Amino acid sequence: MFFDAHKDSRVEKEAIGLLRSKQVDGIILSFNEANRDELLKLRDENFPVVQIYRKSSESMISTIAIDNVANGYLVTKYLLDAGHTRIGHITTGDLTQSGYERKLGYLKALTEANIDIDENLIVEGVSSVEAGRECMERLLELKSRPTALFASHDVLAIGAYDAILDRGLSIPGDISVVGHDNIEIAKMIRPRLTTIDTFKYTLGQASVDLLIEEMAVESHQCKELVYPGELVVRDSVRIL
């Protein structure tokens, strides 16, 4: 059985209850922190459960996670190596764990390169195309606009494309853009978007394998498997 709660904690809680009522043998979930108590309840009942994508704040839950900090660092380092020093960042920030961690990677790379952090270059919004456009418009209003952009999600990068091109600017001629997630449209837009692939199929298979392990033992194993992403270089970055 499969449920998509669309990040709605209420729907997520109802889905967990429905799955339990159907007497499923285990659950793979990407939980909302608002439902932390539900996760702890599953753990306390020794019910087989695997958390995917997000690291749990509780060490007693087995987790399949993306190394978001490393991915944010990888993107920013790539842009730095391409000669960019004024790098904007559109992020979901503290709204999501993934956005927060990717921002940490961005900041780490800049700090290691001895580049002062300019808070004006960091803009936060929800993960949507429209938010990406609005955030990019704010960056374009800066007196000294960025020469490159790291968007914490591809949908934000697509919105940024719209804002950049509407100004008559070119990608990557005027502004280079890198996203994260490698969604299907990333290779279809022009220029094709450079991004981070997180190998969703691999994560899904690993989560199933780990859940089967959990179901075969009497107590939680509390494993944490963290997978790095891979930079997919396409056409949206200019080397200065």
Automatic annotation (TrEMBL):
The keyword Transcription regulation applies. Gene3D superfamilies: 3.40.50.2300. Keywords: DNA-binding, Transcription, Transcription regulation. InterPro entries: LacI/GalR-like_sensor, Peripla_BP_I. GO terms for molecular function: DNA-binding transcription factor activity; transcription cis-regulatory region binding. The keyword Transcription applies. Residues 77-237 form the Transcriptional regulator LacI/GalR-like sensor domain. Pfam families: Peripla_BP_3 (PF13377). This is HTH-type transcriptional repressor CytR. It comes from bioreactor metagenome.
